[in-house]
Every structure is written in C-alpha cells, then in structure tokens.
Amino acid sequence: MRELNRLGVTSAIDAGGGFQNDPDDYRVIEQLAREGQLTVRLAYNLVYPEAGAGG
C-alpha cells in the first residue's frame, strides 16, 4: 500500500475476466480493511460460471 500511495494511486479495480476468482482470494483485502491499513480504494467483481456451463 505504501508504494501505491507514493505513486499517488488512490483507487484500483480488479474487473475479473478470463478466470473465476474465489472469495478466499480477497481475504487479505478484507483483513487490511478491518485493521485500518487499506489506504487504497479497491473494487473487485466475483464471477462464477453458471451451473453446467462447463469449462
């Protein structure tokens, strides 16, 4: 987070895509937010395939 702040980054987005992301992949972000250490606003989208969609 310090490096992002140093560069002037105030927000970022993980728009998802190509691969599905599990909510566990974002636990560290939730932990940092709870501890008051998240100094960059982050948005992310969790996309799950439809049942039986294959892939």
**Proportion of residues in extended strands:** 5-15%
Question: What characterizes the major β-sheet?
Answer: 2 strands, parallel
**What is the helical fraction, as a range of percent?**
10-25%
Number of strands: 2
**Low-confidence regions:** none
Q: Which secondary-structure class do the elements indicate?
A: alpha+beta
Give the ordered list of helices and strands: HEHE
Shape verdict: elongated
Strand order of the largest sheet: 1-2
Using only CA atoms, what is the Rg? 14 Å
Average pLDDT figure: 79
Please tell me the total number of domains: 1
Specify the number of helices. 2
Distance between the termini: 35 Å
Provide structural commentary:
The protein has 55 residues and is α+β, with helices and mostly antiparallel strands. It has one domain (2-44). It is 24% helix and 15% strand. It has two helices and two strands; from the N terminus they run αβαβ. It has a two-stranded parallel ribbon. Helix 2 (27-34) links the parallel strand 1 (11-14) and strand 2 (41-44). The chain is elongated and about 45 Å long.
